[in-house]
Write a structure and sequence with these properties.
The complex is a heterodimer of chains A (112) and B (114).
Chain A (H helix, E strand, L loop, with lengths): L4 E3 L2 E4 L5 E6 L6 E7 L5 E8 L2 E5 L7 E4 L6 E5 L8 E8 L6 E2 L3 E5 L1
Parallel strand pairs in A: 2-11
Antiparallel strand pairs in A: 1-3, 3-8, 4-5, 4-9, 5-6, 7-8, 9-10, 9-11
Chain B lengths: L2 E4 L4 E4 L4 E3 L1 E4 L6 E6 L5 E7 L5 E4 L2 E4 L9 E3 L8 E9 L6 E4 L3 E6 L1
Parallel strand pairs in B: 2-12
Antiparallel strand pairs in B: 1-4, 3-9, 5-6, 5-10, 7-8, 8-9, 10-11, 10-12
The chains are: A mainly beta (112), B mainly beta (114).
Amino acid sequence: EPEVTQTPSHQVTQMGQEVILRCVPISNHLYFYWYRQILGQKVEFLVSFYNNEISEKSEIFDDQFSVERPDGSNFTLKIRSTKLEDSAMYFCASSYGTNEQFFGPGTRLTVL
Amino acid sequence: GNSVTQMEGPVTLSEEAFLTINCTYTATGYPSLFWYVQYPGEGLQLLLKATKADDKGSNKGFEATYRKETTSFHLEKGSVQVSDSAVYFCALSEGSGGYNKLIFGAGTRLAVHP
């Protein structure tokens, strides 16, 4: 069964450093998303991406964040200068456009 | 804006007990509704969904009915197992066309004891 994969599973970084979180969505999916979950809190929408551009972004997704689909298979989330409050679990999701989103296992980001 | 409210946890039950996790929503229009489950150390898995009023979603013994009149989508299971211990998230989809972002509730932790 096809699945969404994410790497790395855990990323530790120093405050102010850049991180790139990687996702490989399901191959025939067209819509891509990033969500985050701060420990013990609800899952929050960050950004959606379709046809090589951002469809919508939340207020969390400020200028420090960017997304890219560099090669037709990977979908990346970059945080330019990490802050302590960026520590969270980041989930990638994809869909074909039928409402149902398939989630990856997540990347736990720890900013020290 | 749209929102989802879930009952607070944790919910602690004995094996074979009946489970209800309440979920209500606020939305303009007619969103699709979902329950996702997060097992310890894992990501989110879709448990069930309903796309229109009076639809019943079901999977693995869990059920939820889309009630427009009460704006609710309560999750139920007749007999829980220890393996059902997880965090359950109610969500609605917001958007148009093929793109839909999900709005999640805060999650309800379920602990089932033998």
